[in-house]
Specification:
The chain has one domain. The chain contains 18 helices and no strands. It has helices at 3-19, 22-30, 34-37, 54-58, 61-97, 104-136, 160-177, 181-210, 220-245, 255-271, 290-298, 306-318, 322-342, 350-353, 356-359, 363-381, 384-390, 392-405. Helix 1 (3-19) packs antiparallel against helix 9 (220-245). Bound molecules: fe (ii) ion (2 copies).
């Protein structure tokens, strides 16, 4: 490895160690009490669940606050899933990288990052679970701890077969990259792209704390967003150094290595294909989310009837709105930043360098997909939805069936 690359890695690792937010995140999360900050916004207003949709327009100030808190809860539930996978692949990649003579520093960097992710996950889950218990008496967007081979996107366009196939691919990638320095290095291209996506939103969430008139008394979730953003900046730097610099010191990839690397980036494009009317900046497949939104609308927070809740879902998701337009813009912005990120990686196929799969989505295509999704949602549940809401166990079972169908 060249001296300059070694030096870049050294600076990034040393600074991350010096500024490490693990302890302060643990302490801050432990102090969280929903009643202390439930009357304040935690994110800029546009980062609220279903912001800029008919639901937002007709919500009371208190409901708007809750939608803002729910954005935080849902957003970080996605981050938790991605970080569980990151911890595993940091470890398998470190195994693949440690096979080289002078790569110890990279492995030490990854060890530090993995332990930071565990603190991040703890902070997100501590807060999210408490909020959901307080609002609904049960978990909605939060889920029990899970392993690294589940679908990374919490709400994806998937079914049992696709989920199974994804799991096999992830396990296989972990296995071969642990014994292949090129693939271990290349994992950081995918990690870099995913972190870029996170940075787009998390930068705005962390700014909210920085611009708070009294940051010391700012709501704890806003503080967590800020600390997290700072840790992630170092993670992004290491992804970039490894995937852009370190990779050049390895022999050129074989045809097989190129194939696996390209499939990884293509999978990332596939995961980031959709944009969501409910969550600006998270590329969820909305039909898989309708059931959750239905619960929120039926809950004491909105107290809607069965037919009002369904009608609201139809209006919010299947029609163009300011919220959906903003999400589309974030999707475009993300795509552009991914393109720049992978521009110089010669081993990538053109459709990966140009992000043309992601580029195929459009407002018209999204709306057509939402309408199809809504028809299936309504048709599948029909009149039963109301009954299901009353019986939690039954509802849970049917919800899982629904999610495995869409
Ligand atoms: Fe993190
Ligand atoms: Fe990270």
């Amino acid at each position: 490895m060249k001296q300059t690359t070694q030096r870049k890695l050294q600076i990034n690792h040393t600074r991350n160690k010096q500024q490490d937010h693990t302890a302060v995140m643990d302490e801050t999360a432990a102090k969280f009490r929903y009643e202390d900050c439930q009357n304040e916004y935690w994110n800029p207003e546009e980062f609220s669940l279903l912001h800029g949709t008919p639901l937002w327009e007709q919500s009371t100030p208190t409901q708007k606050l809750i939608l803002n808190h729910l954005y935080w809860v849902a957003y970080y539930s996605q981050i938790v899933s991605a970080e569980i996978a990151t911890i595993y692949f940091n470890q398998t990649s470190a195994a693949g990288l440690y096979a080289q003579e002078d790569f110890r520093l990279i492995c030490d960097t990854l060890d530090l990052e993995s332990s930071q992710e565990r603190a991040h996950i703890n902070a997100f889950r501590t807060i999210a679970k408490q909020v959901e218990q307080a609002l609904f008496g049960k978990l909605i967007f939060t889920y029990p701890m899970r392993g690294p081979f589940t679908e990374t996107m919490v709400y994806a366009d998937t079914n049992a077969l696709k989920t199974w196939w994804k799991k096999i691919q992830l396990q296989y990638f972990g296995l071969i990259s642990a014994n292949n320095t090129f693939l271990a290095c290349q994992y950081f291209t995918v990690r870099g792209v995913r972190t870029l996506n996170g940075k787009l939103v998390q930068h705005k969430l962390s700014n909210y704390y920085q611009k708070h008139p009294q940051p010391e008394v700012a709501p704890i979730p806003a503080k967590i967003s800020y600390y997290h953003f700072l840790d992630e900046s170092f993670h992004f730097n290491s992804s970039t150094i490894i995937s852009h610099d370190v990779i050049n010191f390895l022999p050129a990839p074989t045809a097989f290595e190129r194939l696996v690397a390209n499939l990884g980036v293509l999978g990332c494009q596939r995961d980031h294909f959709h944009f969501s009317a409910a969550m600006n900046g998270i590329f969820w497949y909305d039909p898989a989310l309708y059931g959750k939104i239905y619960y929120v609308l039926r809950s004491p927070v909105f107290e809607m009837s069965d037919s009002d809740a369904k009608e609201m879902i139809r209006r919010c998701f299947t029609k163009e709105s300011e919220g959906l337009n903003r999400s589309f813009l974030t999707h475009q912005e993300a795509m552009e930043s991914y393109r720049i990120y992978v521009e110089k990686l010669g081993y990538l196929w053109r459709r990966n360098r140009e992000m043309s799969l992601m580029g195929c989505n459009s407002m018209a295509r999204c709306l057509a997909m939402q309408r199809r999704g809504f028809r299936r949602f309504e048709g599948y549940f029909g009149e039963e939805l109301e009954d299901l809401f009353l019986s939690h166990a039954k509802a849970q079972r049917r919800k899982e069936e629904w999610e495995s169908l869409v």
